[in-house]
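Suppose a colleague, Dr. K., hands you the sequence of a protein chain of 212 amino acids and asks what its three-dimensional shape might be. Before reaching for any lab equipment, you can write down a predicted structure in token form. Begin with the sequence itself:
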Amino acid sequence: MVKSTTEDYVKSSERARSSRSARTGSSTRLQVPLHFVVHKPGCHFESCCGICNLFPGVLLIAFCQVLVGSILLTLILTHGRAYDEMHKTPTTQFISAATGIVLSGITGAGMLLIIVALTENCRAMLVYLLVAAIVWMGLVTLAVTKIGRACIRFKDAPKIKDEDHRSANLACVTGLFTFLGSVFYFFSLVVVFSFYHFRYVRRAILLHENEC
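The predicted structure, expressed as tokens, is then:
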């Protein structure tokens, strides 16, 4: 009789433990964020949430960087002398060299972004963000340099010829377009950073809080 009561007590305690573990398991399952339950690694084109919807935009930004950067770099390589004459740097070739370096950085950063986005490498994405920030600062510096040199030439506008005045106007316009390109590049950098933050950083924080 005593043995049967002890067996009943053991069975009831085991049932209670199993029910508690089931409850805790279900509660921990409920604590997992919805995105990480629905999202399948590698299946970016399934638009399960806003985070995944950023992926096509990131790829579009990368392809645009490679396309625009390579086209403009080809133009600089083929028409470098005329570009330096427009900016009055035919001997030093400073403007064409600086523009070529910045465009090479834009093209290389776009290729890196394509590889990083397709391979889902978190550390490589951080490297891209650092490279893109450096390229953006170089783009802003180049735009300010072009506009500043054109404004200095405008001081002597009454003394210069019509052809020189036209080249000074073109130099200022190229500086303004370079600055506009730096603005677009900054917005693309913000989009990629948002994708990196929500896809990797916020996920790691939420999963760490869930484990704790």
